[in-house]
Write a structure and sequence with these properties.
Elements lengths: L16 H15 L3 H25 L8 H17 L1 E3 L5 E3 L3 H17 L3 H17 L1 H14 L6 H11 L7
Antiparallel strand pairs: 1-2
């Protein structure tokens, strides 16, 4: 299978050169991660992406929303992971996110996301980092979703899992 340059993916057709340059800059740090670091970060990214879609659907009162209780539980779970720097999965597996490279990427994402609520330019930086993560972790995200779903203690409908795969894995696949 031939790998195509990520900038040629349809998801980037309407993006500005500045956004694409920011994605590329974040991509350098992400591409320097080891396979194990990528696998660990992919579980965190899976939790983050699932939570994001749950929160968006709940806020929009979408017909396929999961309800306030699930939205709160998902949010609290991700918040706890960020605070504790680890993901404790049912069955005893612990994913340690205290590695400096992972910690820095997670901290930067949180900083940009929160600052971006009041500044559209900063929000674009947050989206660029998230996009770079979807590109760099593309080969690990499916496994990350499976590990998180299996071990999180939360229940996710297949439609939500497919929406995450379509929007954040398939859209960024280069090979």
């Amino acid at each position: 299978m031939v790998e195509r340059p990520w900038r040629s993916l349809p998801v980037f057709d309407e993006k500005s050169p500045a956004f694409l340059d920011a994605v590329a800059a974040y991509g350098h740090a992400l591409n320097a991660l080891s396979l194990q670091q990528r696998r660990d970060l992919a579980v965190f990214k899976a939790a983050e992406l699932l939570n994001a879609l749950i929160q968006i659907r709940e806020r929009r009162q979408a017909p396929d929303r999961l309800g306030d209780a699930v939205a709160k539980a998902s949010f609290q779970r991700v918040r706890q992971v960020i605070r504790d720097r680890r993901i404790v999965l049912q069955g005893g597996e612990v994913i340690d996110l205290r590695d400096p490279a992972l910690r820095d990427l997670i901290d930067e994402g949180c900083r940009l996301f929160h600052a971006g609520r009041k500044d559209a330019e900063v929000y674009q930086q947050a989206l660029a980092l998230s996009t770079a993560q979807c590109l760099a972790l593309n080969d690990q995200l499916d496994e990350g979703i499976a590990r998180y779903v299996e071990g999180s203690g939360l229940s996710f409908p297949d439609s939500l899992l497919q929406a995450v795969r379509t929007a954040f894995i398939e859209a960024y696949r280069t090979a």
